[in-house]
């Protein structure tokens, strides 16, 4: 995510730590910590419905249960409960936070609060078949086992950005993959690959033919990951958005889903 942009409204960038909207009703009252100067405020966020869970919620595993089990990890939809949502925000904040010399802990708390606020915003303003936060955790041998630690997360959103659609034939919407983050201690253990597999399965279940994401052109590790997952480069930021103002150039990568295969 670029500095100055908001996690509430932006399609934040894809990054792995170390590699430098008919509304479906839900219901849960959760406490969202926001910060003003050095004072923390408790803000109630209403999500309409029953207990924050869809009526088809299966065994606490989300609308679809496990989407995929790969490389020793299982990927499922995030459970809309306060504790898990805060954990998701923590994972993404740790991956995207840029350390500062002074008051780093305080700035991290501000940033984590903004990430959590953005998550609440997307859940409240997106139908459940147009936005999902997927989480990765160690694969369990039994459904009765306690839930494991979340080690990675990714956001999947239905979008219709013309800059991307011009490269996609015969469709007017696609799935946008963003906010992919893996805890530092679990890098290079195929967590991100499992998350991308989960996005593939979700695209089939939702009936979308294409997935798209953005990455930094000079992030060779991330580019290799996406290429291995089947994504290809179709465009990049124009020079006037990068070279002239010192921003890193981003590229758009797309993948055709396995829908119909």
UniProtKB/TrEMBL annotation:
User: Which cellular component terms (GO) are annotated to the entry?
Assistant: NatA complex
- Recorded GO MF terms: N-acetyltransferase activity
In residue numbers, the region (Disordered) covers: 1-22
PROSITE patterns under this entry? Answer: GNAT
Q: Which residues form the N-acetyltransferase domain?
A: 121-258
Check the record and name the PANTHER family matching this protein: GCN5-RELATED N-ACETYLTRANSFERASE 10, CHLOROPLASTIC, N-ALPHA-ACETYLTRANSFERASE
Write the protein's name: N-acetyltransferase domain-containing protein
What lineage does UniProt assign to this protein's organism? Eukaryota, Viridiplantae, Streptophyta, Embryophyta, Tracheophyta
């Amino acid at each position: 995510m670029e500095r100055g942009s908001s996690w509430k409204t932006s399609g934040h960038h894809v990054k792995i730590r170390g590699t430098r909207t008919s509304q479906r009703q839900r219901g849960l009252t959760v406490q969202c910590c926001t910060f003003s100067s050095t004072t923390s405020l408790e803000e109630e966020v209403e999500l309409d419905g029953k207990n924050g869970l869809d009526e088809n919620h299966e065994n606490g595993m989300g609308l679809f249960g496990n989407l995929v089990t790969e490389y020793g990890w299982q990927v499922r939809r995030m459970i809309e409960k306060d504790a898990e949502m805060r954990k998701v925000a923590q994972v993404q904040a740790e991956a995207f936070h840029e350390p500062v010399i002074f008051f780093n802990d305080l700035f991290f708390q501000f940033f984590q609060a903004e990430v959590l606020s953005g998550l609440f915003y997307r859940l409240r303003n997106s139908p459940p078949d147009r936005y999902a936060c997927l989480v990765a955790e160690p694969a369990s041998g039994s459904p009765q086992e306690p839930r494991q630690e979340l080690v990675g997360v990714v956001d999947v959103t239905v979008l219709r950005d013309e800059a991307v659609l011009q490269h996609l034939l015969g469709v007017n919407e696609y799935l946008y993959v963003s906010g992919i983050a893996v805890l530092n201690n679990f890098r290079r253990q195929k967590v991100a690959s499992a998350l991308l597999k989960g996005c593939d399965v979700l695209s089939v279940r939702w009936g979308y033919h294409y997935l798209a994401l953005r990455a930094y052109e000079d992030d060779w590790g991330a580019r290799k990951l996406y290429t291995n997952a089947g994504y290809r480069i179709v465009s990049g930021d124009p020079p006037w958005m990068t070279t002239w103002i010192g921003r890193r150039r981003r590229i758009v990568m797309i993948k055709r889903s396995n829908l119909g295969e």
